[in-house]
Amino acid sequence: MPGSLSRLMDVIKIITVFVALTLFFYVMIVWVADALEEHSEEDRPKGRAVKVFNPQREGSLETIHDVKDRLMFFYWFGE
Fold it and tell me: Distance (Å, rounded) from C-alpha 79 to C-alpha 67?
């Protein structure tokens, strides 16, 4: 009987450590995700600068030719 009680305590310890580490890693992942999200918002232009981009219309399908041109532009100019 004392052996089974000891085994039960070991299982409880393992479960406790598992739950604690799971919560720790969850909090760390949320913290890193928030830090990265805040960093991406800092890329906004400041002062009189204007960020220029060409938003794609929702629902528009690009043809394979458009995708190929964009890919070639990216490889050629690196942008």
Answer: 14
The span from the CA of 31 to the CA of 39, in Å, is: 12
Amino acid at 19: V
Read off the pLDDT of residues 17-63 as tens digits, 9 standing for 90 and up.
999 999 999 999 999 988 887 776 666 677 887 777 766 666 566 67
d(CA 49, CA 55): 18
Query: Helix count (H) and strand count (E) of the chain?
Result: 2, 0
Residue 21 to residues 14, 29, 32, 38: CA-CA distances in angstroms? 11, 12, 16, 26
CA distance 66 to 70: 6
Q: Is 20 helix (H, G, I), strand (E, B) or coil?
A: helix
Q: Is 46 left (phi over 0), alpha (psi -120 to 50) or beta?
A: beta
pTM more than 0.90:
no
